[in-house]
Amino acid sequence: MSDRLFAVYEVPGPAAEAEKTARAIAYEETVEVPLEFPLPARIREEVVGRVGALTPVSGGKFRVEIDFPAALAGGRIGTLLNLTFGNASIWPGVRLVDIVFPDSFLASFPGPNFGVAGLRELLGVQGRPLLATALKPMGSSDEEFAAAAAAFARGGGDIVKDDQNLVDASFAAFETRVSRIAEAVAATGDKCLYFPHLAGPQEELEDRLRVVLGAGLKGVLICPAIVGLDTMRSLASKRKAVFMAHPAYSGSLYAERSHGIEHSLYLGTLMRLAGADITVFPNAGGRFGFTREECRAIATRSRAPLGSLAASWPAPGGGMSLDNTGSMTEDFGQDSIWLVGGRLLMHPGGPEAGAQAFRAKMPV
Amino acid sequence: MSDRLFAVYEVPGPAAEAEKTARAIAYEETVEVPLEFPLPARIREEVVGRVGALTPVSGGKFRVEIDFPAALAGGRIGTLLNLTFGNASIWPGVRLVDIVFPDSFLASFPGPNFGVAGLRELLGVQGRPLLATALKPMGSSDEEFAAAAAAFARGGGDIVKDDQNLVDASFAAFETRVSRIAEAVAATGDKCLYFPHLAGPQEELEDRLRVVLGAGLKGVLICPAIVGLDTMRSLASKRKAVFMAHPAYSGSLYAERSHGIEHSLYLGTLMRLAGADITVFPNAGGRFGFTREECRAIATRSRAPLGSLAASWPAPGGGMSLDNTGSMTEDFGQDSIWLVGGRLLMHPGGPEAGAQAFRAKMPV
Lengths: 364, 364
Known about the structure:
By secondary structure, chain A is of the alpha/beta class.
């Protein structure tokens, strides 16, 4: 069985309908022919997905496991997505909730370059969560961003990242802005990492990453749903940088629970498989309607055993204030990153005092 | 106004709630700070999106236009997706239904390399739809695929593409399979194009495209939602190939009408902007629940005026039989591609007779 990959779906009932949908997925994602197509026995037995038992779950839906020869996923992320959720993504009411990978598949993926342990070592921080912020609002000058980043570093912040909305007019403008902010953070003497947003034309991403690392920086923010999950994997395999994955543009996959891909599978497991050292997601209680259970599940999957892949950092963000840090500790524990944007930057004493205030709330 | 980009959303009502959501999107997609953040007047006026009038639409929802400085989309697809549907994608109930681009934005995009006119010229076919099929089922041998492709060509087929599920074990296996099928099609002497599926590790895509063109082929099948829309755009800018875009893995964006991106905006406009010469989508009446209106809208947007971009070919596929070709003609007209897979391949007389039968149903 070790050479088979198990994809778990939730599909609408009743049972007979669910069974029909499951069989259709098993066909659609492999041979993609009508059920009455004269398939050779070998292909029917060795290629078509196998439908397992149906289990009723809430909402009149059924959970069903379909297993495929792992070779059909080709040890590649794109092929995996095509196999488990290519045409199935277009089927109304189908949700991919889990994938169980054989070790043979996972062995093709180096996973996060740094992960939990590596990033702790890089920062020299043990025994507490990390504190991160975002440079915003867009429209600020390079100097304003540089000053905010430096203040955050002085206040004890660990990671300052570009807001994913920041746009540089050109490669040169990106280079100038990044080096200015990098210098300001370095000048504080504090061990704070600055992660610029790696975006722009696809053919420039590698060069931009080179610029970032050339400025002495250790990592980047990236939006895998936009550039492609395998693009992040490819960049991470070429350069030993920290990749902080932002969920922009991926929400359609999980925001409606009636279809798509389960939050924790996409934001936890798949991001990690694609090399995310850090996975950013909207925290419960914020403005995006994630539940505490969904957020905890993302954190669990980002750190649970997965072949020999390093654990990723869960980075819940959005709507965090000094009043709800207790639930952060309870939900995510030490190996998590508190991503605090607006509330930290608008602290009456500025980003330095803001960072100090959030650091003071951390468990030690 | 020409330097502004208009994004049109449908959001849940009642009106007061819709207004609140629209203002939140305008903030979220630009400055991404709490509403009470002390924004400088310049940023508030020049950067934050502007919310237009609300119009009630069906289902208790409201349609609202939010306009942004076009510079924030940076003349790039990734930046455009981030601006119009980055964090907004995570918001339950928000659907992006239209984008009105200023010419200044469109001018950055060459669009399809061939488009409707160019592909007609390449094939020497005027005055009728094109007939396409897919090589399947996976698990067949290279020889079986080659024989089916050649038979389809002899029967008068115009385009034979790989099924998007086909997986080659290695670069070498891809090279062997592609050249074998290419030779078989060329040997017929018929003017039929073969488009291999361009997939695999991100860092190999360019080399694989080189192999395809080196084998004398003119284009590829590609899954932009998997490799990234801007990856297709980048590849198309480097090589004058035909790009046939397949919707695998993109379904979560549009399959549920309650959120995501409108079918025709994604499969019509955005695919074309990203350089798709052909956009494949599931036809109405097939197994994916698209309505005739949705399919017609995709076709309309793929061919409507859009800056100076060439028109793309709509390629409805899925569930087509010899009995429903009349609706194809009615819905999509001459400038469309009939993509017929299983039903053509399983014709009692084989793919050659299958191609002849479908060609005979075409309006002339």
